[in-house]
Design goal:
InterPro entries: Pyridox_Oxase_N, Split_barrel_FMN-bd. By secondary structure, this protein is α+β, with helices and mostly antiparallel strands. The protein is built from six helices and seven strands; from the N terminus they run H-H-H-E-E-E-E-H-E-E-H-E-H. It has three domains: about 30 residues, no CATH class; about 140 residues, Roll (Pnp Oxidase, Chain A), CATH 2.30.110.10; about 30 residues.
Length: about 200
């Protein structure tokens, strides 16, 4: 676990609950540096085609939004910076409005087949889609995509990997396609053998 994550999330109220429920609380040193993403986190992020993003509005109500796109749409700009193109949605702009008031975000990324999940804490900034100055990588496609409304850049503060407990494996059509294809071929083979046998018996 990245140590900065626990420093942020282990508040006095959380420690109090730990003591009351388990007899003791976790301890963490304060003033820890920001945790850079390692190759493991970067690879996992680059392989995702969706994630959940939590923001908080001015009345302290949390809001969670699903973000999806092609594999790798959440880009790694540096060990402490990630970004994605925010595409046109239901026109409510709840997350965008929240970020104008409070730039803190929490991202939840999950890979269902391997039952792996990664949580990321950071501070988000909103850029016009034409304004990729100062950002690494190529954003030409995003700037020309009429469905993209803005770029959201997140300065990563820390992250944490969760255990696989209670995650039910789920698979996409593309992931199960090879297995289904093999089954269909086997069914076709058996049907042909059965037809040939029935023809011979006649």
């Amino acid at each position: 676990m990245a140590e900065k994550f626990m420093e942020i999330t282990l508040t006095p109220a959380v420690q109090k609950e730990q003591r009351e429920n388990y007899g003791r609380s976790l301890h963490v040193e304060r003033g820890r540096p920001i945790d850079p993403l390692t190759e493991r986190e970067s690879q996992f992020i680059s392989q995702r085609n969706s994630f959940y993003m939590a923001t908080v509005n001015q009345d302290s109500w949390p809001y969670i939004q699903h973000k999806g796109g092609e594999v790798g749409f959440l880009k790694i700009l540096s060990p402490n910076q990630i970004a994605f193109a925010d595409r046109k949605g239901n026109r409510q702009l709840l997350s965008v409005g929240n970020l104008r008031e409070n730039d803190k975000v929490a991202l939840f990324l999950i890979d269902y087949p391997t039952r792996t999940r990664l949580k990321i804490l950071g501070n988000a900034r909103i850029h016009a889609k034409e304004d990729s100055s100062g950002l690494s990588g190529t954003w030409t496609n995003e700037a020309e995509d009429r469905h993209v409304e803005r770029l959201i850049v997140i300065d990563v503060v820390s992250y944490d990997w969760n255990c696989p407990q209670y995650i039910s494996p789920r698979f996409t059509e593309d992931q199960i396609a090879p297995a289904v294809k093999a089954l269909k071929l086997r069914i076709q083979q058996l049907e042909e053998e059965l037809h040939a046998q029935q023809t011979t018996e006649q």
